[in-house]
Write a structure and sequence with these properties.
This protein has 347 residues and is an alpha/beta fold. It has two domains: 174 residues, Quinone Oxidoreductase, Chain A, domain 1 (Alpha-Beta Complex); 138 residues, NAD(P)-binding Rossmann-like Domain (Rossmann fold). 23% of the residues lie in helices and 26% in strands. The protein has ten helices and 15 strands. The strands form three sheets. Strands 3, 4, 5, 6, 7, 14 and 15 form a seven-stranded mixed beta sheet that branches. It is globular. The protein binds NADP nicotinamide-adenine-dinucleotide phosphate.
């Protein structure tokens, strides 16, 4: 275990000083199926000047966490969140909600004891996590900690639709993979942006998509969305299983295809799709866009307002205690989510 950093900027305030210096956490020491995870006692993280230490109540579990646990596609191991030959960060988890336990020396705008939510770089599957203050926001007052822990995923839908897709009121938007962790947010956010929304999902999710506000729902088991002949201003692709040519064919002449997922197998994941999309967009007015979600407090504040105004809500499919983290990850890893999955750190 690393020694506790005692430099002045990292000294905990009196409320925390003297308290237990370790914490219970999910520990990830090697890549593999979720069984590689263990529960253990690890060093409690110490906030830097621009960070907040949060006492975690609940953390979101999503397909991105599964990629980092398994180390697949292998490309994730080369990212700052992965590591070679093994995981760089021993505690996984990113999105979470909890209570402010300590503030870095330069942090303003939050207070001890405040209920917050946001996205850590890593380490959210634990009793305490350090989060950059700019990646945190006050918890929506209408939500529980479990619900708030999955709201940061909505930022993926928001950035995909609003920023990459440029969605404006009145446009026709297709959400491919509408029933999953990001998709259930995307349907609601596209509606909130004023779009006419078509959700593409499996039969068991059709009614759920209507309940979330989708104007049209296509059951992909019954109908091929390409053959339907409809045209969309924006397509948000959260699945990546259809060819770029098929996806482009359902766009209006100046429509935008937003690749959020890519399929692509265990090695490089979506890389070939992204390169292919960028190159092919030189030859057509239809645009290809892709993005990596960048957490930021401004978008979280936007989402808080949306949620508190009743315009969007989390769709919690499953909630697991911390001791069942492997089951939670196995579930999201199957790729058939019907909303979001949560890990309860408290309770
Ligand atoms: N770019 C970024 O920054 C970013 C950020 C977050 C996530 N992502 C990516 O976005 C993708 C979606 O994430 P997620 O968390 O929403 O995944 P998820 O929770 O696993 O959801 C995927 C959904 O797609 C549905 N699906 C599967 N095949 C389908 C098909 N042929 N047509 C329509 N729906 C289909 C699944 O349900 P059924 O099997 O029942 O149909 C499931 O509900 C992932 O690839 C993830 O890696 C990217």
């Amino acid at each position: 275990m690393p020694a506790v950093d005692e430099s002045p900027s990292n000294v905990l305030p009196p409320s925390v000083e003297g308290a237990r210096r370790t914490m219970r956490a999910v520990v990830h020491r090697q890549y593999g199926e979720p069984e590689v995870l263990t529960l253990g006692e690890v060093e409690r993280p110490v906030p830097g000047d621009d960070d907040v230490l949060v006492r975690v109540h609940a953390a979101g579990v999503n397909i991105g966490d599964h990629h980092l646990i398994t180390g697949k596609p292998y490309l994730v191991r080369l990212s700052p969140f992965g590591g070679v030959p093994g995981p760089r960060h021993p505690v996984p988890g990113a999105t979470m909600a909890g209570v402010v336990e300590a503030l870095g020396a330069k942090v303003t705008g939050f207070r001890l004891g405040e209920e917050v939510y946001g996205q850590a770089a890593h380490g959210a599957f634990a009793e305490y996590v350090v989060v950059r203050a700019e990646h945190l926001a006050p918890k929506p007052r209408t939500l529980s900690f479990e619900e708030a822990a999955v709201v940061p995923w909505a930022a993926t839908a928001l950035q995909g639709l609003r920023d990459a897709g440029g969605v404006v009121a009145g446009q026709k938007v297709l959400i491919f993979g509408a029933s999953g962790g990001v998709g259930t947010w995307a349907v609601q956010i596209a509606k909130a942006l004023g779009a006419e929304v078509t959700a593409l999902c499996s039969a068991r999710n059709v009614e759920r998509m209507r309940a979330l506000g989708a104007d049209e729902v296509i059951d992909y088991g019954k109908e091929d969305f390409v053959a339907r002949g409809a045209r969309f201003d924006v397509m948000l692709d959260l699945v990546g299983s259809r060819s770029l040519a098929d996806c482009r064919s359902v766009l209006t002449p100046e429509g935008v295809y937003v690749a959020c997922a890519g399929g692509g197998g265990d090695w490089v994941g979506p890389v070939f799709r992204i390169v292919g999309g960028l190159v092919s967009s030189w030859f057509t007015r239809r645009r290809f866009k892709t993005f990596v979600m960048a957490p930021n407090g401004k978008d979280l504040a936007f989402l808080t307002a949306l949620v508190d105004a009743g315009k969007a809500k989390p769709v919690i499919e499953r909630s697991y205690p911390m001791s069942e983290v492997a089951d939670a990850l196995r579930h999201v890893g199957e790729g058939h989510a019907q909303g979001q999955t949560v890990l309860r750190i408290v309770g």
